[in-house]
Each structure stands twice: as C-alpha cells, then as structure tokens.
Amino acid sequence: MTDREQMTLTSAGYYVSQEAPIVTDNPVATPASAPPDILRCAYMELVVTDLAASREFYVDILGLYVTEEDDQAIYLRSTEEFIHHNLVLRKGPVAAVAAFSYRVRAADDLDKAVAFFTELGCEVRRSEDGFVKGIGDAVRVIDPLGFPYEFFHQTDHVERMSWRYDLHVPGELVRLDHFNQMTPDVPRAVKYMQDLGFRVTEDIQDESGTVYAAWMRRKPTVHDTAMTGGDGPRMHHVCFATHEKHNILAICDKLGALRRSDAIERGPGRHGVSNAFYLYLRDPDGHRVEVYTQDYYTGDPDNPVITWDVHDNQRRDWWGNPVVPSWYTDGSLVLDLDGNPQPVIARTDSSEMAVTVGADGFSYTRRDEREGKLGNQL
Amino acid sequence: MTDREQMTLTSAGYYVSQEAPIVTDNPVATPASAPPDILRCAYMELVVTDLAASREFYVDILGLYVTEEDDQAIYLRSTEEFIHHNLVLRKGPVAAVAAFSYRVRAADDLDKAVAFFTELGCEVRRSEDGFVKGIGDAVRVIDPLGFPYEFFHQTDHVERMSWRYDLHVPGELVRLDHFNQMTPDVPRAVKYMQDLGFRVTEDIQDESGTVYAAWMRRKPTVHDTAMTGGDGPRMHHVCFATHEKHNILAICDKLGALRRSDAIERGPGRHGVSNAFYLYLRDPDGHRVEVYTQDYYTGDPDNPVITWDVHDNQRRDWWGNPVVPSWYTDGSLVLDLDGNPQPVIARTDSSEMAVTVGADGFSYTRRDEREGKLGNQL
Amino acid sequence: MTDREQMTLTSAGYYVSQEAPIVTDNPVATPASAPPDILRCAYMELVVTDLAASREFYVDILGLYVTEEDDQAIYLRSTEEFIHHNLVLRKGPVAAVAAFSYRVRAADDLDKAVAFFTELGCEVRRSEDGFVKGIGDAVRVIDPLGFPYEFFHQTDHVERMSWRYDLHVPGELVRLDHFNQMTPDVPRAVKYMQDLGFRVTEDIQDESGTVYAAWMRRKPTVHDTAMTGGDGPRMHHVCFATHEKHNILAICDKLGALRRSDAIERGPGRHGVSNAFYLYLRDPDGHRVEVYTQDYYTGDPDNPVITWDVHDNQRRDWWGNPVVPSWYTDGSLVLDLDGNPQPVIARTDSSEMAVTVGADGFSYTRRDEREGKLGNQL
Amino acid sequence: MTDREQMTLTSAGYYVSQEAPIVTDNPVATPASAPPDILRCAYMELVVTDLAASREFYVDILGLYVTEEDDQAIYLRSTEEFIHHNLVLRKGPVAAVAAFSYRVRAADDLDKAVAFFTELGCEVRRSEDGFVKGIGDAVRVIDPLGFPYEFFHQTDHVERMSWRYDLHVPGELVRLDHFNQMTPDVPRAVKYMQDLGFRVTEDIQDESGTVYAAWMRRKPTVHDTAMTGGDGPRMHHVCFATHEKHNILAICDKLGALRRSDAIERGPGRHGVSNAFYLYLRDPDGHRVEVYTQDYYTGDPDNPVITWDVHDNQRRDWWGNPVVPSWYTDGSLVLDLDGNPQPVIARTDSSEMAVTVGADGFSYTRRDEREGKLGNQL
C-alpha cells in the first residue's frame, strides 16, 4: 500500500498516484532472468463436465464462433479474433481451469518463460506441438501463486468475423478482454506479476493499506488479468468485450426468453473500477463469465494508477447496487499440469464482503456519510 | 380473476386471454352517466418540501424543461410535450400527491366527469380557471378509491423540444408515460377504472385468483396508470419515457458522478410486465420516479390481455433480479381536495412480496422448478 | 395551404398551426355517410415476381416472422404484432401493390366502408371470408385517388414475439408503422383522407402554397399514411419501426456483409419531418421499404400541425444530406380490384426535386442564406 | 504493392496478407539511427483564423474539455485523456496545421528523434520547455514528406473525465484516435513511416499495384495516422473516438438543431477500411474532423494486413453510399517550423476519385458485377 497522503483525491471520489501503490512484506523473489514479452491474454482452457450443455451456453446463447470441435473439445473465438481461439471447452470429470494462456511477442520469448519460471522453482513443461489444437510451441507452468499459466506465440490464423454482420447476434462478443484470479495475498501476487512485466492500473484498498483487489495489464486496457483477494488459487472469471452497452442488455433479454435468467449472477451495471459497463453470468458448470464494454486506454508508462477506497459503495458498482455474496465467495478450481485440482488456500486478510456489508462493515455513497444505499437495502 | 383454463399459455411463459381477466365481489357501482373521454395521463401535481432540492433533481439531474416557475411552484415538461406541463412541483409541508391529472378529448367531457363522479357520491370541484397555471377549466374529484383525480381539456401550448437536440442531455426524458397507484383491493379498483373507460392490458395473479397488480390504458401503450396492491390510497410512482435504453443507463451514470447513487432504488432492468426497460429513482422527498422505454402498441379493441403468474420470477424483472423490499412497501401519500393527506387503508389480501420471497413464498425461473434465482441469492 | 401569417415559426425552423393547413380547389365530394372507424394501417399486400428472392429479403435479411406460407404467398409479421400479418408477399407477373389494408374498430365499420365508398362512386367489393388468409370479412375498394384500399376487423391472433429475445436479430423490426402513397394532387388527396377520418400532422409547402407532401394519422403517431406529390397512384414505400437507432444501422451493416449494399437507396439519416431516424431500402422488385424509429405522440385533437418550407434543406434530412433522385421519382404500381395495374397520372404541380436542386431550385440551411450544403455538393 | 496471388481473399471481400503489402521504387533512405519509441498520436496544433468561432465549434458543439486557454490559444482534451491536451487551437492568419504531435515512451527517445531526423537531412528543432503549454522537452521536425511532426514525453497530468458523467454530452468524444495526412506518393510515405516504427494495418490498391491510401499504427488500433494519396503535404483530418454509434448520430442531430448541418461533409456511415462507424465534419476554417467508433485490436506482430480493391464500392463506405468529391480533394495546409505554409506538390499517380467514379472509373458492389450503386445514383 501507499500512504494516502501520497495520492491525489479526484473529483470523482477515487485516488490517483504515479507509482503502483502496493507493497508486500512477503514477496516472491524476483528472478534474474528477464520475463517473456507478453502481448495479451489470449485464451482460457476450461474443463467442463457436459460438453453439449457448455456448447449450448457459449455457442447457441453467447454466440461465440466455433473454429474447430470434436467430441472432446470445442475451440471458440470472438468476433474480431484472428488467432485460432479464445476459449477451449474440454470435457473432463471436474469443472476447472486448465490454463490461463497468454500470447508472447516472439518465438524466443518461450525460452525466456522457461528460464524465468525455472528460476522461480516452478514446475515447467514445454510442448513444441502445443497443448491444444491451433497453437504451436507452448510453455505451461504452475506459477508461484499456484495458477496454470501458458505462454505461446505460434498459432493458426483464422478469419476475423468483424465484417460478417450477417452472422452477428444482438449480444455479439467481439474480443477476449481479460482474466480474473482469486488469490489469498494480493500484494504478493501483484509483486510477482509486476516482475512478469504487468503494470497495475487500479486497486482497492482500505485506509490501513489492506489490498482487496488489483488490476494489471499488458495490452493497453485496464487489465489482462486481475487479482481478487479470496481463497485461492481459483479462477474468478473470464471476460469478453462487446461494442456497446445494448449488446450486454441483449444477452440478459435472451437469457430471460430462454428461461435461463438464473445464469445472471450480478448486473448489468457500471463498474467504478475500470469505468466499464458489465454483466456476470455463470455457465452450466458454474464458471463465471463477464461481459464488459468501454474501459479506457492505459498504454502510457505514466498512466495514473487509481486506488478506490474499499468502503466507497460505488467502487464495484457505480450505481451503488449491491454485490451478491456468491460473487465474492464462489470461484472455479484450477488444475495442476497433470490435470488434478490445485488445493485452495484460505485468505487470512479481511474480506471485502465483510468490511463493506453487515455488522462489521460499512459502505458510503458520500465520503462524509457513513450510511450508504447498501446498508439501507439489506 | 379468470380461470387459467380459459387462458392460453404462451411460449414466453405468460398467459393471454381475450377478456379482462379480473372480477370483483366488492364492486363500485357503475354510474348510469357516461364517463369522460380520457385521452391520456397528462400531469402529476406533486407536493415537495424543499423546492430547490426538487428543482435540482428534476431539472439539473433529470433534465426536464421548465415551462414556468415562481417561488411556490415549478412547471415542468418532457421533450416532446406540447401542453403546458407534465409535472408540477408545489412547495408544501408534507410530501404528497395533490393530483393525478388526465386530459380529456373535449371541453364537454368535463360535464361528463362531473356527472359521473357526482353519481358515484364523490367529492367534486370544478374551477373554470384551472387549479394550476397553464390549465383552463378543470374538474377535481376524490375518486371511489380515495385518489385525487383531475380532468381538463384546455391548456396552453408550448414548443415541442424534440428537434432542439442542442438542449438534449444523455438521459433525455421524452414523454410522460404513466402513473402507478397503490390500493388495497385491486379487482375493485380495476372494475371502477373500466367503468371510467380504461382497458386492462396486463395483470399479475396467483392460481387461486388473487390479483396483485393490474395495468390499464387509454392511450395505446401498456398503461396510463396501474393499480398495485398495497396499503392505499398512495402513489407508487410516476413514469417518464426515454427513446433508448442507453438514455436510462446515462441517468444512473450521472447519479453516480454526483455521488447520488442512493437515489437509485431498483434497476435498471427489463420488465416482464410491459416488456419495457426500466429504472426506479427516489426524489429528495422519497417520491418514486420511473424511467422507462419500449413497451408495445395496445390500441386494438381485442388487444390480448396478459396475465403473469405471481410466482414467475421474471414477471417483475425479466432477468430475475430481486425486487428490493422498499419498492413493495413504500409509497407517497395523496391529498384530499383541501390539501390534507388521505388516510391509508391496509391491504388485507396477501402481499406480492410475501408470496414470492421468504419462508412463505417462492419464485421460479422455470415453471416446473420451484427453486429460482431469488431464493438462492437472499 | 394556409397563409404563413397564420402560422407560428418555431425555434427549430418549422411552422406550427392549429388547423390542417391545406385547402384544395379540386375536392372530392364529402359523402353524407360516416366513414369507418379506422384503427391503424395493418398490412400491405405486395405482388412480387420472385417469391424466393423476396422471402430471402424480408425473412432472411430483415427478419420478419413467417406466420404462414405456401408456394403462392408468404404471410409475414413484425415482432410485436398479434394480428395474422403485416405484409403479404404474393407471387405475380408484375411487381405492384394489391392492397393498402387498414384495420377498423368493429365489424359494422365494414358496412360503413361500403356505404362511404359506394356514395363516392368507387368500385367496392366485399368478401366475408377475406381476400387473404388470416383475415375475415373484408371490403376492398378503388378509392377516389385510384388506390386499392382494404378495410377489415376480424383476424386470427398470433403470438407476440416481443419477449422472444432468443429469436431477435440486430435489426429487429418491431411494428408496421405506415404506408406512403404517390399522388399528383396532394391537397385533393388530403381533403378526401380527412373525410375518411385521418388527421394531418405535418406537411411540406412553399410560400405560394403549393403542397409537396402531407402526413396523416389515425393511430397517435405521425402517420398511418402519407401523400407524396408525384405521378400516381403509386406506392412510395411501406415502413416498419425498430426500437433503437442501432437496429437500423445493423440492417445496413448486414446488407454490406451480404454484398447487397445496393439495396440501400437513401440514408440512414434523421428526418426533419416526423423527427424519426430512417433508412430506405429497395426490395428485389424495387418496392421501397423504410425502416424508422422514434417519431412522437400525436393523439391529442389539438396536436399542433407542422409545416415545413420546401426550401428548408433540413426538412427531408435534418443533417442536410442530399436526397437521391430515385427517391423522388420511383414508385411501385398499384393494382385495380381485378389485379391489373392502375394507369399513372402525371403530377402537374411543380416537383419537390425541381424546386430544391438544380438551376431552378434552391435549399437553405439557414433561413436567411440561399446557399445550402446541397448546392455546394452537387 | 504485393501480388494478389500472395494475398488471401476473405469471405467479406477484402484480401489479407502477412507482410505489409506495399513497396516503393522511390524510397526515403533508412537511417542507421534507431527511431524514437512512439506511444501514440497525442495532439494536433491547429491554426485557426477566428478563435471564438473555433471555440464554439470544438467546445460548445463538440464538447471537448478546456484544460487551459488565453486570448491566443485554447488547449482541449477528450474525456478519458490524462495528458494536458489533444488539440491546441492557436489563433493565426492562415488556417493550417502547425504540428502533428506524438508522445514517445521515455525522455531519451527525444535524443533518438533528433538523431533519426538529422540523419535524414530534415530540419530539426528542440525546445526544453516545449513549444506549447503543458508539454515539456519536445522536438519538432519537418519530416521527409514535408509534415511538421512533434515528439515529446513530458506533459502535465490532468484529471480523466471518464467518471464525470454529470458533464458528459450526448455526443461525448472520449479519445483522440488518429491523424490522416495527404501525400502524393503513398508507397514512399509508407516506407518512411515503417522506418519510424509504424506498422501497416490496411491499404487500398488496384490490381496493377497503385496504392491509394494506407493506414499505420503504433498503439494497437487500426491507426495513429494514415496516408491518403493526394496533393500534399496537407492534413486530411484529425479524428476523435466516441464510445457508441448513437454518440455520433447525436452530433449530427445537434448540428441540425443549430442550423449548422452544412458542417457535416460525409456520413455518418460504416467504413469498410477499419470497420469503424464514422462521420466527417468541417470546422469553421474548413479543417476536417472525423468522429469514429469501434475499429479493432491490431497489437499482435503478425496482425493480418488488409488490402482493399480500389474498385470495391464498400471499401470507403460499407453501405455503398457515395463519397462526396470535396472529401477527396480538400485538405488543410501544413506549416514549416517558422510558421509558413508548406508548398503543395501534386499527386501524379491516378486519383481514387477518378478511378472509381465517372467515365473513367468504376465501382462494384459484387466482385463479378461492374455496375455498382454509385454509378446508378450519380
């Protein structure tokens, strides 16, 4: 954390500062090896228990494009994607995440990835033919936080569907935007991710410096991934972007028409963090999917870092609508490189839900008033 | 109520029937006098306790146009209105509704209104110069349900602001859409309103025929007013329409920016009833204001009447998001013709909130499954 | 025409007046018989030369819903329609309009229609089983202007698709909005339509009182039909409404993707007249289809009538974009009751195209400046 | 140009290839010095002849935020910008562009800029205090194409207005998107820009390899600048992005309301190139401003390069609407480092307008048909 004295309070109620405002007293060591040059989050490999049910959700309802499929796996992409896929649905016995996969700038970044994670003492595997279809030489690791991370450069190119308006649906998902991970110790996670080349764009803290979540990017959006404080390693969500807000509303309307409105977990709403318009869904296995639009450009090296007060009731929802408890507590298991679920470690820092709602928490709409909408409603 | 055997279940989960599916065993007598020919809901006269605070809410935030104002009252209209006003804010000691005002087709409809309500034994007053500025000859009554209703034809014309895009705001309110009233006995209220010339478009019932709410129209939209079951007579809300859904989201965003997100009570969301996109706000006195867009044409005499099952969790919010308790319980007092608050009579039929949430209630997403999203979330 | 001295110039540049500002020196006689009580424009019967090509256009591209079809005809409806159809595509040798069909309030309005048009000396036919599927007792006439008009009340009810968001497309057409007819003598046409119960909402005139077009309504929108000055009787267009502007843009995008952008004749743009957002397409036979959204409520009997100056370059397109010549000159033939094309009579009044563009015309952006964008561009 | 045999024709009608498909036989020499690491286009300095008129256009109409102003210059920024400005309006005798300014990654990139352009034989000036307010150490050059280019890193930070929805207008401009330059020899220009570190994303060619325009980027959008074939050096336009398409329509509506629709030169429409939704305006001095939304991510090093056939009538407008001649022919002068207009050199290659319209040109909607909409309309 950074002392708030060193931050600037904005007219909108959050703070800005120049340096990433998070420090840890329990750091992962910084490797001497340079990290790979990561371009962006590229795809998630998701293990699902009922491939047909998942296909219905991601293809028939959400309208992702099928690049390739067989009876074991479905390779899906968003409208403007030109690489082979943004999501792999693989049939398996336990719903979990098999890989958070990032694309690197060049083939030799894979060597850097191997060196970086080997030096960190992580389990590292490399497959010259890739671990999934459409992807060539790839490195998979269990990172210091326990997550299965993949790095690759080579991939088959496919046609961008951006001009194929004849195939678009009202809720068109145009690109993979980001991942979100649950981990017990956010400052420790942030420090490691910074070593890996990520930059913090926003975070949530309290006055005493407890960090509840942090957003980090490689591509110049608010994030390629975020670290959400909670029991972990678990996957909080994977997020696709739409062009406009009505596209997100159309997804809700369609779920209602299909009598699947219970797939809507939270939203739609406007985030405080990121300023994006959002919706959270749960797929047939309970994996959380966000749909999101209109955050902001973050590509300058001195991009101001935003810190939100955890008690600001507009940080998670700019309209002050309450966050459902499941959104704080639920997450997907992640797998080790042999396909077994990683053990989950409990968070010991205070939880965002506990400090903002209920007897021990509070949230304000206006900084000088303790009582917010949330307290009145529940 | 009508037996569900006489209704047709649609593919979207609601029922349709040809005749207004509500009967009462406690009717208001039908007058022999013909009712006035009502065109539409035209304006509400609202008593507010702090005129400056209300002006800030309705003018600075919501962007209604000021036709005329002095230190006692402000006359406001929506973008496309050509009559003098759609809302009067009048300063007074107790927040309440002084009049639900309807425009009638011709001057002699006022004579009909006098005859109709006199025959009903109601208190009736007529003012040739109108009760407020901009309105000529008018009749005010306390109707059989205890509400202060006004009827008028003559009004000053003002310029429609539809082409004045230079003055429009992101959350532009384009027309007054409807009123919504709370009354203990909905079937009794509906019967009287039908005598007054209104037609039912939708309602909410349970299987045993208890009616929880009904929507009624003169102009060919889903409603000019609705009767919501609850302690009454009280005003549930007044509603303005926007052109597009993003206009409604813009109002939420603006309230967040002003750190007034606690003015957002419920939504935004998609209604099941009416199929409109909606938002509920509370003004500085707690008066509830809805913003709404995109219901459907109802002007044919055989327009199918829609009945929703009270346990259908998508009836109030098509996305299954929960209704906050205050939305069911809170309402504004209404005044008698001398300006004193009308006494509130308790509803004795079961309440919609009680039968849909909590230990004694249930809501379903799919007709054959008892467990819905609401039950899981709260 | 009405003297401009009797009109009020608005801040947006058009005039308003209380009385319909059009008079004719060549009137159709007013029948002693009362006209039928028309509810709204209900459907158009269109003769097409290639049923498969038309089905592709109206169903696959525009997304209208098929109520019923066989190898001779296709019955289509828009999303929120509950009557059997809004458009009949019937296979025939010559592309033309077989009927402009209006729904009347009650069965006995058909007797009134017979009396009204018989007194006018028109050819009148009645079919108790209707002239097309899904419609019962109906009256067809060749009206005094030469157009095949139909009136009916009985129709089969079908399910409204408004809640079936799972079937909606990005360019969803939600309702039939209006017809538009080409006729040489607009004032004569208006007088007859007023006798039939229509009310004028807007018109285009020049200072000397030549009327170039007029809009008339039964339902409370800007029009159920309009009379456009030109060689006639011909059909100018049939119009469907969408909910939002992006729906109209989506139709353009889809036509581009299908390499059918040449089906876009004019727009998208914002009308001055009606204030609606619009697009004009041409179907495979050249029939013109408008898509339109967000005009305004006109249901009050004293709704101000709007008159636009023919030289105001923002009257047809509020953004001043030029009208393509084909939009002024092209129209569809209409059929007599035996299915033969009606002869076309040339307009003798000056044409709107001639007085606004070219050597003999002018258009202004600002009232006091003769030179507008149009003149500069062409 | 690249042989079309080496390109892949997509289902949408354009070609893709892996390498930038443009070669020149008249190259600017490649410097041995490394180019500066450019982050993005950052601001344009525009000389205007009437500061008050320009302020009305950019502030009152377009809603840009004033960071700072005096009687000589106004410093403006878009909603989400955190650097001092995106546009400087400076009062001067001749309307022109004084600088196309790019932000570089670090302070020492300015040394690289000096070395790079000095080696190219260009005029180079450096000002440690910057050339305008809010910008520190900066380098200005007249580049090999004759354009005044600026590079800077240091800038004052200002508050992002993204969360200040209370200040947003319906046509909110959220970021500076790109510049567009007119130059006679596009392949020569592209080669030099590639040396400067830009990557080609799209271009327009004919079958014989004549290049009519090319788009190039540093940040991962379709472009930071484009080279449009024409007499030059001149500025074709500067472009701001909005969040949604309706924001662009709102600007048109507002211009109509202000009776300034003649400021709309072309559009709104959908580009083929970039897939963005667009509008072109002309400011009071005739400087062209584009408003634009929703292109696509281009940040991967193997991002497929798109080549459009110059005869494809959907390349400039996906809906096939004609491009007005002024859009091809008009441009703004650019200044040398002393503030004098640069001489304009005529293009000798064939012009895009000439090869696509008129007696010697053609445009097709479908590849195998010569006749397109454009030919039919004009």
UniProtKB/TrEMBL annotation, chains A, B, C, D:
<dbReference type="InterPro" id="IPR000486">
    <property type="entry name" value="Xdiol_ring_cleave_dOase_1/2"/>
</dbReference>
<dbReference type="InterPro" id="IPR044904">
    <property type="entry name" value="HPCD_C_sf"/>
</dbReference>
<dbReference type="Pfam" id="PF00903">
    <property type="entry name" value="Glyoxalase"/>
</dbReference>
<keyword id="KW-0479">Metal-binding</keyword>
<keyword id="KW-0223">Dioxygenase</keyword>
<feature type="domain" description="VOC">
    <location>
        <begin position="175"/>
        <end position="294"/>
    </location>
</feature>
<dbReference type="InterPro" id="IPR050383">
    <property type="entry name" value="GlyoxalaseI/FosfomycinResist"/>
</dbReference>
<dbReference type="InterPro" id="IPR029068">
    <property type="entry name" value="Glyas_Bleomycin-R_OHBP_Dase"/>
</dbReference>
<keyword id="KW-0408">Iron</keyword>
<dbReference type="InterPro" id="IPR004360">
    <property type="entry name" value="Glyas_Fos-R_dOase_dom"/>
</dbReference>
<protein>
    <submittedName>
        <fullName>3,4-dihydroxyphenylacetate 2,3-dioxygenase</fullName>
    </submittedName>
</protein>
<feature type="domain" description="VOC">
    <location>
        <begin position="40"/>
        <end position="154"/>
    </location>
</feature>
<dbReference type="GO" id="GO:0008198">
    <property type="term" value="F:ferrous iron binding"/>
</dbReference>
<dbReference type="InterPro" id="IPR037523">
    <property type="entry name" value="VOC_core"/>
</dbReference>
<keyword id="KW-0560">Oxidoreductase</keyword>
<keyword id="KW-0058">Aromatic hydrocarbons catabolism</keyword>
<dbReference type="InterPro" id="IPR011981">
    <property type="entry name" value="DHPA_dOase_Mn/Fe"/>
</dbReference>
<dbReference type="GO" id="GO:0051213">
    <property type="term" value="F:dioxygenase activity"/>
</dbReference>
<comment type="similarity">
    <text>Belongs to the extradiol ring-cleavage dioxygenase family.</text>
</comment>
